[in-house]
Amino acid sequence: MRIILITGISGSGKSVALNALEDAGYYCVDNLPPRFLPELAKYLDSQGQLRLAVAIDARSSRSLDEVPAIIKDLSQAFDLRVLFLNASTQSLIQRFSETRRRHPLSGSPNHDADVGLLTSLGEAIESERELVSGLAEFGHQIDTSNLRANVLRAWVKSFIEQEPAGLTLMFESFGFKRGVPLDADFVFDVRTLPNPYYDHELRPLTGLDKPVIDFLSAQPMVHQMIDDVGTFIAKWLPQFRDDNRSYLTVAIGCTGGQHRSVFIAQALAARFGDKANVIVRHRDAPIALDGHVAPLQT
């Protein structure tokens, strides 16, 4: 049986992810106390259930310390994957304000005894970050700060379609003007490269379009940047494998996340396609939503 454990920060999109998994045929449970997860998994497995998705968050704050041991134990018997959703504090405050929902760690007249009480929303968010921070290392992280719900659903679909064995290497393009992705393990700044944005014909296009590809391919500096970043990753990738890492995220940033970073992320993904399970994502470019490596146009 495959188990997807969804965790992370409240307001970061766990409900959207859980709904996407339900649509994909998973038996879904929200807000399950962690101590009951092994019993539930064994029962459903005995009943012939093949897919289980469980959301665990700060509503079970006093039980979160048990989760790392539970993950390790269940991984011995099941195909267990962890999806950790995160978002910037500013984005979370805006979402809670728009929905008028109460944060699980905010004061409430009818609160669960398993949840501590805090007064301000910002304080609650930061406290929750500390509570769940230890879970991020067990799985794949997604920063949903600037994501639309349909993009998150597409990324979750890509996540569950990946083969479980080996390390998954993700290249994510982004624009610095919208902030650095919170899920990045490495960040490379390519803003020093020639910018297609200043060509009025190229401005509305992206790094996947042939005119932009031709423009950037003609720049020696671009190839030097790709070679330098590629050499660094190739050197250290074996060390991450030896450390039993399941996911490694390499973020490539330019000003708007539409031209240079997209092109370079695609080039790097193509370069490492036969060396790891590769995903490429373009956070800020107005292009297709699937997370698979798209071939470079020639």
UniProtKB/TrEMBL annotation:
<dbReference type="GO" id="GO:0005524">
    <property type="term" value="F:ATP binding"/>
</dbReference>
<keyword id="KW-0418">Kinase</keyword>
<dbReference type="GO" id="GO:0005525">
    <property type="term" value="F:GTP binding"/>
</dbReference>
<keyword id="KW-0808">Transferase</keyword>
<dbReference type="InterPro" id="IPR053931">
    <property type="entry name" value="RapZ_C"/>
</dbReference>
<keyword id="KW-0547">Nucleotide-binding</keyword>
<dbReference type="Pfam" id="PF03668">
    <property type="entry name" value="RapZ-like_N"/>
</dbReference>
<feature type="domain" description="RapZ-like N-terminal">
    <location>
        <begin position="1"/>
        <end position="160"/>
    </location>
</feature>
<dbReference type="Pfam" id="PF22740">
    <property type="entry name" value="PapZ_C"/>
</dbReference>
<feature type="binding site">
    <location>
        <begin position="57"/>
        <end position="60"/>
    </location>
    <ligand>
        <name>GTP</name>
    </ligand>
</feature>
<feature type="binding site">
    <location>
        <begin position="8"/>
        <end position="15"/>
    </location>
    <ligand>
        <name>ATP</name>
    </ligand>
</feature>
<keyword id="KW-0342">GTP-binding</keyword>
<dbReference type="InterPro" id="IPR027417">
    <property type="entry name" value="P-loop_NTPase"/>
</dbReference>
<dbReference type="InterPro" id="IPR005337">
    <property type="entry name" value="RapZ-like"/>
</dbReference>
<dbReference type="GO" id="GO:0016301">
    <property type="term" value="F:kinase activity"/>
</dbReference>
<protein>
    <submittedName>
        <fullName>P-loop-containing kinase</fullName>
    </submittedName>
</protein>
<keyword id="KW-0067">ATP-binding</keyword>
<dbReference type="InterPro" id="IPR053930">
    <property type="entry name" value="RapZ-like_N"/>
</dbReference>
<feature type="domain" description="RapZ C-terminal">
    <location>
        <begin position="168"/>
        <end position="285"/>
    </location>
</feature>
